[in-house]
UniProtKB/TrEMBL annotation, chain B:
This is Fe-S cluster assembly ATPase SufC. It comes from Methylosinus trichosporium (strain ATCC 35070 / NCIMB 11131 / UNIQEM 75 / OB3b). The lineage of its organism: Bacteria, Pseudomonadati, Pseudomonadota, Alphaproteobacteria, Hyphomicrobiales. InterPro entries: AAA+_ATPase, ABC_transporter-like_ATP-bd, ABC_transporter-like_CS, FeS-cluster_ATPase_SufC, P-loop_NTPase. Keywords: ATP-binding, Nucleotide-binding. PROSITE patterns: ABC_TRANSPORTER_1 (PS00211), ABC_TRANSPORTER_2 (PS50893). Belongs to the ABC transporter superfamily. Ycf16 family.
Length: 434, 249
């Protein structure tokens, strides 16, 4: 009886099979087919899958929203000096994007075009990094991918302007979207890439986004994943894949502002010697938000450095998840890794699941990890109150400080300040009891 | 003027203050000396309003008004200032941001207009230079990585910016070397004024060489056991607290 229950496809899985039939003819037939077969074998991840233990997607995704045609969108104003590429409701929209403003040395195509042409370079690059290969959600994305952007940055190009991939939801319907974007950064190039998830109106969307970076030797990439508020009914899955070659550097900030179920998964591979990786994250959660960050950092070459610093602020009945695994492959000597996840619980009903892990198969490495969950510190609170700050203001200052320590590392001042403003605005909404 | 009348305080089942009476007039520096565990820090926390202490009897009057029902920030706005024995480190909060928030919160609470940044900066620059505090230090997170002396100086800087009516120095000398002690004491002395009272809590006579008290009170077993002038502190340095602890045992 139990066996039958496991083998039986859920309503959502059956609906996804229908969606796959519809996407079959849209290029990359072999990759789609293989990915679908993989997904069909695995099914939607449940608690029994270790990497999804705290986010039971099969239980959360009861029915599948239609892929549907994109809605009408009015694009919000861009931050100064950014080149914006708009992917709305799963479709790249050159008409809404600053295509003409792309600097020299940056080549753009839409993923749909590249797939339709069976662009072999793109297809090769889409081949999954080893450590993401076992993930059903990434496979599902490969089977159903609709569109996205493909950026190729020529070697030694220094892209001064930040390129923003705006993942926009029109909010006129609860629809599904499967996007996949690819950024190939040539040797010695420098770029700043921001992916932003924005809902023009809250809707119970089901989104599955993949962003893959292939970073050449000596190249430097700064990245921000900015996941804005969404409806309580929304399910948004973001997979970030990074491969860094010799002396490449990747610095990333994830800023998650709740909104239903958010899962960030990061699969990073330090493939060349002396590559460095820095993954930072802030999650501000309230209400019934559920935000999961699950990451695997793989040290596959010697003399690489990785840093992960994650902070979660949890109010209301929210749930936070951090699962971090640092894997040091045999031969990856002189690895320097450090991972930290800290959570601040503001409510009795909030829950944090913190699980850092190390898997070390080399003997000459320095790796550390730490995880904490706690409430606001009574001594700090009293100190501020004794100086004249009302309790709520004192709390807000401490919370801002807690999250702000991470945001403080953002190099561009205007961007950094905008995140401080977002923290304050979240605190303001908390104050209003929202 | 602060008047503490028949103050009884417990933490849970344990009685800490047992009918304490003490008056500190405006312009007066009163020292409280006493052995460990006698309730000196409790007294400073109860006056400033920390949670977790049960006041079962008595009152604390600031210029005639009982402040025991007020929140800590309301007491601060009315002029109560506690210089902490161990100032707390607050990562992620820049010292300058904190100072401005504190000054303006108190001004708002008193119905005064908030200070604008240029005026505030001018005020901080002047007060900092008197205490030998480098402005770069104010960009750092509050007290994080500061030495013991720097933390105490930061507390005194806050006191000079907030201009309280009544300042409590809770074992300000702990963790200070002689040079730091001198700087901090000079800071406190500069703030002495006919309209401001101080309560200096200490174990040792040494601090009182730098901050000269008008009155000295010996505290033991939850109440004031003896009151005198500065000579009482010298006497205690010789004879210790034996007489007060042993009594009524």
């Amino acid at each position: 009886m139990t066996v039958q229950a496991i083998d039986k496809k859920s309503e959502a899985e059956t609906a996804l099979a229908g969606a796959f039939e519809a996407m079959k003819g849209k290029g990359a037939a072999a990759l789609r087919q293989a990915s679908w077969e993989f997904f069909a074998r695995k099914g939607l991840p449940t608690r029994r899958v270790e990497a999804w233990h705290y986010t039971d997607l099969r239980a959360a995704l009861r029915s599948v929203a239609p892929l549907g045609a994109p809605g009408t969108v009015a694009v919000p104003a861009a931050a100064d000096g950014r080149v914006r590429l708009v992917v709305a409701d799963g479709a790249f929209r050159p008409d809404l994007s600053d295509v003409a403003a792309l600097p020299a040395g940056v080549e753009l195509s839409s993923l749909a075009d590249a797939l339709a042409k069976d662009d072999s370079a793109v297809l090769t690059a889409l081949g999954l990094p080893e450590n993401a290969g076992a993930d059903a959600v990434v496979a599902l994305n490969a089977a159903l991918m609709q569109d996205g952007v493909v950026l190729r940055i020529a070697p030694a190009t220094e892209v001064a302007k930040t390129i923003e991939i705006l993942l926009l939801s029109s909010g006129d319907a609860a629809r599904s979207a499967f996007t996949r974007s690819l950024v190939v950064v040539g040797d010695g190039a420098k770029a700043k890439i921001v992916e932003t998830s924005v809902a023009l109106a809250p809707a119970g969307v089901q989104e599955n986004h993949v962003l893959a970076f292939s970073i050449g030797a000596g190249a430097e990439v700064e990245h921000i994943a900015d996941i804005g508020p969404q409806s309580e009914a929304a399910i948004r899955l973001f997979s970030l894949m990074v491969t860094a070659q010799t002396k490449a550097s990747f610095k990333s900030l994830g800023f998650v502002e709740g909104g239903g179920l958010v899962r960030r998964q990061i699969f990073a591979r330090l493939a060349g010697e002396q590559a460095s990786l820095s993954l930072d994250g802030v999650a501000l959660l309230g209400g019934k938000d559920h935000a999961d960050t699950t990451l695997v950092v793989e040290h596959a070459a010697p003399h690489c450095q990785s840093r992960e610093r994650f902070r979660s602020v949890l109010d209301g009945q929210s749930t936070g998840v951090f699962q971090g695994k640092v894997v040091v492959r045999p031969g990856a000597q002189k690895t320097d890794g450090s991972m930290q996840s800290r959570a601040l619980l503001l409510s009795e009903n909030a829950t944090m699941n913190n699980k850092p892990e190390l898997e070390i198969f080399a003997d000459d490495v320095v790796c550390g990890h730490g995880a904490t969950c706690g409430r606001l510190d009574a001594d700090q609170l009293f100190y501020l109150e004794a100086r004249g700050l009302p309790k709520r203001e004192a709390e807000a200052l401490l919370i801002e400080g807690f999250a702000g320590e991470i945001v403080d590392a953002v190099s561009e001042e205007a961007t950094r300040e905008s995140y401080f403003a977002r923290i304050r605005s979240w605190l303001g909404r908390r104050e209003d009891g929202k | 003027m602060i008047e503490i009348k028949n103050l009884h305080v417990s933490i849970g089942e344990r009685k800490i203050l047992d009918g304490l009476n003490l008056t500190v007039k405006d312009g007066e520096v009163a020292a409280i000396m006493g052995p460990n565990g006698t309730g000196k820090s409790t007294l400073s926390y109860v006056i400033s309003g920390r949670e977790g202490y049960d006041v079962t009897e008595g009152e604390v009057l600031l210029d005639g008004e009982n402040i025991l029902g007020l929140e800590p920030h309301e007491r601060a706005a009315k002029g109560v200032f506690l210089a902490f024995q161990y100032p707390v480190e607050i990562p992620g909060v820049a010292t300058m941001t904190f100072l401005k928030a504190a000054v303006n919160a108190q001004r708002r609470s008193r119905g005064e207009e908030e200070l604008q940044t240029p005026d505030f900066m001018k005020m901080v620059r002047e007060a900092s230079s008197k205490l030998g505090i480098n402005m770069d230090m104010l960009k750092r997170p509050l007290n994080v990585g500061f030495s013991g002396g720097e933390k105490k100086r930061m507390d005194i800087l806050q006191m000079s910016l907030l201009e309280p009516k009544f300042g409590i120095l809770d074992e300000t000398d702990s963790g200070l070397d002689i040079d730091a002690l001198r700087i901090v004491s000079e800071g406190v002395n500069a703030l002495r004024s006919p309209s401001r009272g101080f309560l200096v809590i200490t174990h040792y006579q040494r601090l009182l060489d730098y901050i000269k008290p008008d009155t000295v009170h010996v505290m033991a077993k939850g109440k004031i056991q003896k009151t005198g002038g500065p000579e009482l502190a010298l006497e205690l340095e010789k004879s210790g607290y034996r007489d007060y602890v042993g009594e009524a045992a």
